[in-house]
Amino acid sequence: MPILKRDNGISIYYEERGQKEAAETLLLLGGLTRDHTIWRKVLPYLEEKYRIILPDNRDAGQSSTAATEYGISELSEDMSDLIQSLRLCPVHVVGHSMGGFMAFHLAAKYPELIKTIILCSTAEKQTEAGISYLRGRMCLINEKSPAEAKPTSRDDIVAVMDKIYSPTSLKNEVFIEEMIDFETSNPYPQRADAFKRQAIACLHHNAEFLLRDIVCPVSIITGKHDRTFPPEVAYTLSTKMRRPTVTIIPDAGHMVQLEQPKLLSDTLEKFIVTYRHEPDGEVSMRIEV
Predict the structure, then answer these.
(1) Is-contact 220 234, C-beta < 8 A?
(2) Quick one: pLDDT at residue 180?
(3) What's this model's pTM, rounded to 2 decimal places?
């Protein structure tokens, strides 16, 4: 079982997939509550071409449960250690939601480790919709007894579905039941206190001061129906970055990697191919709707 044991006592579980000798390595970072399995639907499209590293963030999956609160900066330090310990650098960082928050820190603080960042359903600072969502989920958990307070309970999952999935996905009963069954059967469910620590880190997220230090190519991706980080947020972020591309994924909400895994994978590959042809030049912005 591959685990990075950091000097601060935090242990990061990770899995490796794809081609170990591939020219390009992808580090896939999941979001709030999620472990590495959040990327399960995109792996079939990527693992034949890339080396893929799939970590569990602290307080999720098989990584350490933290003893104290922390910020997004500390979460990103877990990943910089992982990159260096595996001698992966430089890598393409694909960060979804909270994973995207971490990508800002990695790209700004460790440019030598990062080739590009792909920011999925995320932004440089928390949105009002994001704050409302996080506080709402915390209230759901606080209303329950300690024994029942689980962010992966069926009631909790169902309660937030309309906030994270597109109208198309919500009408697909097979898809919805698949999502519920997968999350409720997770053998490593997140504890309520772990959820709260991650949620507090997300509530305090603001990486605006880091944007000027990000010099690598950036791809910004969001779902057309993302309620937390909608297309207008992606467009606004693109005006603050040096070398951005923007892609809007149709028929997707916040969970683009689950709702549109093929489109997301195609977008990643096009961006990486463009980077390989122009590693030191400008990557032209393209906006797809």
Answers:
(1) yes
(2) 96
(3) 0.94
